[in-house]
Amino acid sequence: MSFFSGFVEGLASSADTSIKRYLESDNQLKSKLAEKRIARAETEEARFRKEFDQYKREIKGLSKKAGGVDNAQYILQKYGYDEGSKIINELYTKELAGGKSVSSLFELQERTGPSVTIDQLATFYTPPAKIGTGESMQGVGGGISKLFGGENWIQKAVLQETDAVVGNLTKASLSEIPEALTAIDDIENYEIGYSLDYTKEYNRLMSVATDFLNNGDTDKAAKIKIAAEANYLTMKNFEKSEYGGAELRAVAKDFEKKLVNVHGIKGRYDAYSNFITPAESIEKYKLAQTVTTGLESVAQIARKEYSLDPTYIKLKLTEAITKNLVPVIVAPTDQFSKAIIKLTDEKLYNIAGSPTGTSTSSGLSGQYNLTTIPSTIANIQSLSGTAQSKAIIDAQKLYSGNQNAKNQLDKKLRELGLL
C-alpha cells in the first residue's frame, strides 16, 4: 500500500468515527427533547384536569343557582367568569332571603339546538394545555446531522415521535360549545343591586329612573318606573285581601310592558309611561292591551276570590306571558288545599297573517263564561268612577267571545244600574 493510499484510508476511518459520534450525540439530544416534551405534556394534562374539575364543580353550582346551564352561560359571558360568578352567588343569596329568583331578572331566547353542557362550559373556561409548538427546536443539531436529515430534522423527529402521545394527553382541552343565548330581556346592571326592603327598593328604582330620564332615555326611565310601581304595590297588597284600583293598574301596566317586550312590539314609552307605537304595530299593541285586560281580571279574581299571594300571582302571570300560554285558576279540591294558577296549552297572544289581512285573538277570552260572571260583577262593584267604567268596558270585551255569557253579564249589570 502506498503512503497516499494509507493516508486516505486512515482519514476515512477517522471521519467515519467522527460522523458516528456526531450522529449518536444528536440522537441522544433528540431523545432528551422528546422526553422533555412528553413530561411537559403530562404536567400540563394534570394541571388541566385539576382545574377542569374545579370549574366543573363551580359551574354545576352556579347553574343550579341561576336556573339552568344556559342562564349561567349567559351571565358568565356577559360579565366574565369571576364577576359573573360573584353576581350569581349574590343574587342567589338574596333569593334565599325572600328576594327574586336569579332567572326572573332576564329572559333568553329559546334554544333551537342542543343546550350547552356543564362539561363544555368547564372546558371553555379551563386554560388549555400548553406544551409549545416545537419552534424553539428549529436548527438544533450538528452540521453532519443536517447534512443527512435536513435543516430541522431533530425538530421534525421529536414532533413525530411525541405527537401520538401528546395528542392523547391534551385533546380534552379542545372543545366547541353552543353560543350563549341572546337575551330577549337583558339583565340590567341596576337590577343586580336590588334591596330586599321593598320601600327602599322603590325609592332606589325611582332614582335610577330619574337618572335615565335626565340623560334623555325616556323609554328606559318609563319601564323602570312601571316595574318599580308594580313591585311596590304588589308588596303593599299583602296587607289587603284584594287589589285596589291603583295597585291593579300598576300590575296591569307591568304585564303590558312585558307583553310588548316579549312579542317585539315596536314603539317606545314616553315620560308618562304611555306607549307610543307606529302604525305598523297598532294591531299588535291593541291585542297586547286586550290580553293585559284579561290578565288583570285573572289577577283580581285570584287575589280576591281565592286569597292567593300577590307575588305568586305576579310570578305565574309573568310566566304565562313569557311562555305565551293562557293561565287559568284551578279551584282547591278540598278544604285543606289552595287554588293554583295553571298554564294551559292554548296560546295567550296570537297574531297571524290571514288572506283577509291580520287576525288577532286573545286566548283568555275562552275562560270567561257564565260561571265567572259573579266574580266579574263583584270586581266591578268594588271599583268606582272611571275605574269602574273601564272595568265594565273591559268585561264586555272579555265576554264577547261567548254571546250567551255576554248577554247574561249585560243583564246583571243593568239590574244593578251599572249599565
Helix content: 55-70%
Can you tell me the overall shape? elongated
Helix count equals 15
Strand content: 5-15%
* Total beta strands: 8
| End-to-end distance | 139 Å
Sheet with most strands: strand arrangement: 1-2
Order of helices and strands: HHHEHHHEHHHHEEHHEEEEHHH
| Spatial extent as radius of gyration | 35 Å
Biggest sheet statistics: 2 strands, antiparallel
Number of domains: 2
Mean pLDDT: 78
Low-confidence stretches: 1-15, 136-151, 353-361
Quickly give the structural class. mainly alpha
Description:
- With 419 residues, this protein is mainly alpha-helical.
- The chain folds into two domains: 3-173, no CATH class; 195-367, no CATH class.
- Helix content is 61%, strand content 8%.
- It has helices spanning 3-66, 69-79, 81-96, 118-125, 143-149, 153-170, 189-192, 198-214, 218-236, 245-262, 282-304, 310-323, 373-381, 385-398, 403-415; strands at residues 107-108, 183-185, 268-269, 275-276, 325-330, 340-347, 349-354, 357-362.
- A two-stranded antiparallel ribbon has the order 1-2. The chain has a two-stranded antiparallel sheet with strand order 3-4. Strands 5-6 form a two-stranded antiparallel ribbon.
- Helix 8 runs antiparallel to helix 9 (218-236), helix 10 (245-262) crosses helix 11 (282-304) and helix 10 (245-262) packs parallel to helix 12 (310-323).
- The protein is elongated.
- The model is unreliable at 1-15, 136-151 and 353-361 (pLDDT under 50).
